[in-house]
Amino acid sequence: MRSYLDFEKPVAELDARIDELRALAASGSDIADEISRVEDKAGQALDELYSALTPWQKAQVARHPQRPHCVDYINALITEFTPLAGDRKFGEDEALIGGFGRFRGESVCVLGQEKGATTETRLKHNFGMARPEGYRKAVRLMEMADRFGLPVLSLVDTAGAYPGIGAEERGQAEAIARSTDACLSLRVPNIAVIIGEGGSGGAIAIATANRVLMLEHAIYSVISPEAASSILWRDSTKAQEAATNMKITAQDLARFGIIDTILKEPVGGAHRDPQAMIQVTGDAIAQAMNDLRPLDGDTIRRQRRQKFLDIGRKLG
Questions:
Q1: CA nearest 195: which of 257, 278, 122?
Q2: Strands (E), the chain
């Protein structure tokens, strides 16, 4: 069953009307023309709505519960995927999935934050908020990938690193910093895709990549709009205003040079046609890999470091 966001109410009403008409048609009523008319109206309403989304509305779309998650991309794009567990220091963190497999025949290392799709899986994956052991696992796998000359693919979808006391006691900030450094030190290509939320250091820890791709209605920011609102105005109800001022959309970030490519989503968001969105993403990843494949290790690392130095100089 499709879930609608608050601002999609006009479309939800039209879709409900279509369902009613289809039920009547199934009982023998000849109303095909009426169904077609309402479908056209619903499609037009969706087009108009999604052609002018505000940053806050994009944040809602990026968090849509039916949006394809990390495991959906892995299942569709990666064959022979073998997940690896544990950081060899403390334990396993299921918020961050990591392993090796084949992307269109080429061996790759895959990292990704998984939010979960049901209550059970959301709790299992801690809503995609990794603890220090998750980032230390990422470092372990990136070092393995570098040793064996395998490209690294990161699928980013997190509200941020887990802020719990235990995570802080085990060195959350240090783990994020070391993961970021591991990204920068790779002599193999790494490609990051912001598939939903790219939140704070929790995202950048695996997204410091040669190429950063971002879905059209995803968001990427140093802090969530709600947290920024609470800090700046001590009022979480101003999240909409914060989202507008923070420049969190793919369009803003492409303009600033923080991301490299915007991946167009199906009308109505990636959740309306997950298979099409995953196919577009796979094609973009393949193109990025083809662009980087001819480069030697030193050039790959130098270009990546220069990319982020340039961002700091431009925006500093």
A1: 278
A2: 78-83, 96-103, 106-113, 152-158, 190-199, 211-215, 219-221, 261-263
Kindly report, residue by residue over 235-268, the tens digit of the pLDDT.
878 888 989 899 999 999 999 999 999 999 999 9
Can you read off the two tokens belonging to residue 139?
Answer: 């470092």
Residue 155 Cα distances to 52, 62, 113, 190, 259, angstroms: 26, 14, 7, 11, 14
Yes or no: say if 99 and 181 are a contact pair by the CB < 8 Å rule: no
Q: Are the C-beta atoms of 161 and 202 separated by less than 8 Å? A: yes
Contact predicate 12/4, CB 8 Å: yes
Instruction: Name the phi and psi angles at 7, rounded to 5.
Output: -75, -5
Cα(171)–Cα(53) distance, integer angstroms: 38
| Three-state DSSP state, 89 | coil
Q: What are the start-end ranges of the H helices in 149-238? A: 165-169, 172-185, 200-207, 225-233
The domains of the chain are located at: 6-52, 59-315
CA distance 192 to 288: 10
pLDDT digits (tens, 9 = 90+) for 115-149: 999 999 999 999 999 999 999 999 999 999 999 99
Distance CA 164, CA 279 (A): 36
Q: What DSSP designation does 105 have?
A: T
CA dist., res. 237 & res. 57, Å (int): 14
Count CB neighbours of 116 within 10 A: 20
Please, which residues have CB within 8 angstroms of residue 84's CB and are 6 or more apart in sequence?
98, 99, 100, 137, 141
Supply angle C-alpha 192, 196, 199, rounded to 5.
75
Q: Which two tokens stand for residue 90?
A: 């403390």
Q: Please check whether the domain covering 59-315 is classified as CATH 3.90.226.10.
A: yes
Is residue 72 a contact partner of residue 278, using CB atoms and an 8 Å limit?
yes
In this prediction the pTM is 0.91
Strands (E), 6-158: 78-83, 96-103, 106-113, 152-158
